[in-house]
Design brief:
9 helices, mainly alpha
């Protein structure tokens, strides 16, 4: 149990780095260098095509894959923290971690190998260029929302367990409830779900620190 919690702490720190990369890309690199100034610009296939294999899109894809694997590991570790005082919620935490992890992982697969395969298809079928880009963008967008929704569900379960058990600070429980909003709102208004970029890095950093302290206390 101690090993899984320590591993989950490291996973949380990897996720923080991934989220900061997303924040840098979305808030600076993509508007400044790629012309994505409005959310609807991501529906412009000319801009999407121009951004393919850019540093921003490529680093984002790699980060999504790292975050995807890390979320699954994080779910296992956080589940171990709460499995004795609240076993039912602990099992749901694993499920939420897997749902979120798969969403982000598949987004990253769409970003990197998916873009490679898409490039071959567009080269050999130039008359279908825009259609292929549209399909890829639609698939990627839905997978990303899956990752965000799972992440917010994960935060809600952590909030519930924190308030029921007191194993994490009370303020962290309330902060966790706040982080359920991007996933909930994003299911109705997808662009609103990307508020997770602003809310989650600090939350995830705090979770990683609390998990590390928990593992260290168990080692004594």
């Amino acid at each position: 149990m101690q090993v899984s919690i320590r591993a989950a702490s490291m996973a949380a720190f990897f996720i923080v780095v991934g989220f900061l990369i997303h924040a840098l890309n979305a808030n600076y690199l993509e508007p400044t260098f790629l012309g994505f100034e409005e959310p609807t610009d991501y529906a412009n296939m000319a801009k999407i095509e121009n951004a393919i294999w850019s540093f921003s899109f490529t680093s984002s894809g790699i980060s999504h894959m790292v975050v995807g694997f890390s979320m699954m590991l994080l779910g296992l570790g956080v589940s171990d923290v709460f499995k004795d005082p609240h076993p039912a919620a602990a099992r749901l935490i694993i499920l939420a971690g897997v749902v979120s992890g798969l969403g982000f992982l598949l987004t990253g697969i769409s970003d990197i190998p998916g873009t490679f395969y898409g490039g071959i298809l567009r080269e050999l079928n130039p008359e279908q260029n825009e259609t292929i880009l549209l399909i890829s963008t639609m698939i990627r967008g839905n997978l990303n929302i899956m990752g965000i929704a799972g992440l917010s569900w994960f935060a809600g379960l952590v909030a519930y367990c924190t308030q029921k058990t007191g194993l994490f600070p009370k303020w962290f429980g309330w902060y966790s409830w706040l982080n359920t909003l991007p996933g909930l709102v994003g299911l109705a208004i997808p662009f609103a779900g990307f508020a997770y970029i602003q809310l989650f890095p600090l939350w995830m950093l705090a979770l990683g620190i609390f998990l590390r302290r928990r593992a260290a206390a168990m080692a004594v």
